[in-house]
Amino acid sequence: MNAVRASFKFRGLMAPVFNSFKNDPSQSINYGVIDPYAKWLKNKGVQGVLVNGTTGEGMSLSVPERQGVAEEWQKACKKYGMTLMVQIGGAPFVDVAELAKHAEELKVDAILCLPELYFRPKNEKDLVRYIGNVSKHCSRTPLFYYHFPMMSKVEVSMPKFLDLAEKEIENIVGIKFSSPDLAEGSACLKLNRFIFLGNNMIFCGALAQGFDCSIMTSLNICPELAIEIFQSMKKGDILNASVKQKELSGVYDRILKDSANSITALKKEFHRVSQIDIGVPRIPN
């Protein structure tokens, strides 16, 4: 294993953080909430964050905005001793390349990237080629692929992709697996590979299968529950973990019940539990 891959060591739970928008005509970003947001998460036991992902509406931000968000979170993560992963995909490749360079210059801990979302990869080799081209612009930083087929509509085999990618992309470290297909996710697990679960509803089952890291929106809403599930499974207390998983799923069912937009409902709930006002989602949400 090369030095770049070996440099990433995070095992545990990351919160995919929301972005905060002001109530002005352009819904400009409220960077001022980032420091208190990071402090709140740290006090709750969360050790890492993902910025500009789906929860953060990263694909609704301009390149300068995404860079600004990454810069402010980097400051906060250094201040509070948290691991930082930055999502750069979901844009034209020239912008993805610029965001990759910027993230590397910031010395973030890891970079996450969606596939091309219009001229979509049709097979594992196409996807390796795309992520390989991204890696040329951030070759000194651990790189993850963001597998979210429900949104990206890129449905290629993740075990096959990873096997090919690890032969051709020196800084590929793993994937964020935001799919309900636990069998496929489990097939990706391998020594020195990082598979971050991105699904709140199958967290307990995934831990039982051998997952040891996760990026879940629930870490913004009820971090205590997710952390207790994680710690219970590590101790072998499957019964308590199962009980808490049902409780976590119930919280999500309550939040999303009768909601036309999950981001809207989740941001509202985060404001309620944290008292940090992050505004409403940006258009088109």
SS-based structural class? alpha/beta
Whole-Å distance between the termini? 41 Å
Number of strands: 8
Low-pLDDT sequence parts:
none
Multimeric organization: single chain
The shape is globular
The neighbouring-strand order within the major sheet is 1-2-3-4-5-6-7-8
Major beta sheet summary: 8 strands, parallel, barrel
Q: For the residues shown, what is the average pLDDT? A: 96
**What is the string of SSEs from the N terminus onward?**
HEHEHEHEHEHHEHEHEHHHH
Strand content: 5-15%
Q: Which value, in Å, is the CA radius of gyration?
A: 18 Å
In short:
With 285 residues, this protein is of the alpha/beta class.
What would your notes on this structure say?
It is a single chain. The chain has helices at residues 3-7, 34-43, 63-80, 93-106, 124-135, 149-152, 158-168, 182-188, 203-209, 218-221, 223-235, 238-256, 262-274; strands at residues 13-16, 48-51, 83-87, 110-113, 143-147, 172-177, 194-197, 213-215. It has an eight-stranded parallel β-barrel with strand order 1-2-3-4-5-6-7-8, surrounded by six helices. By secondary structure, the protein is α/β, with parallel strands linked by helices. Helix 2 packs across helix 3 (63-80), helix 3 packs parallel to helix 4 and helix 11 packs antiparallel against helix 12. The chain is globular and about 45 Å long. The chain has 13 helices and eight strands. The chain starts with a helix and ends in an 11-residue tail after the last helix. Helix 3 links the parallel strand 2 (48-51) and strand 3 (83-87).
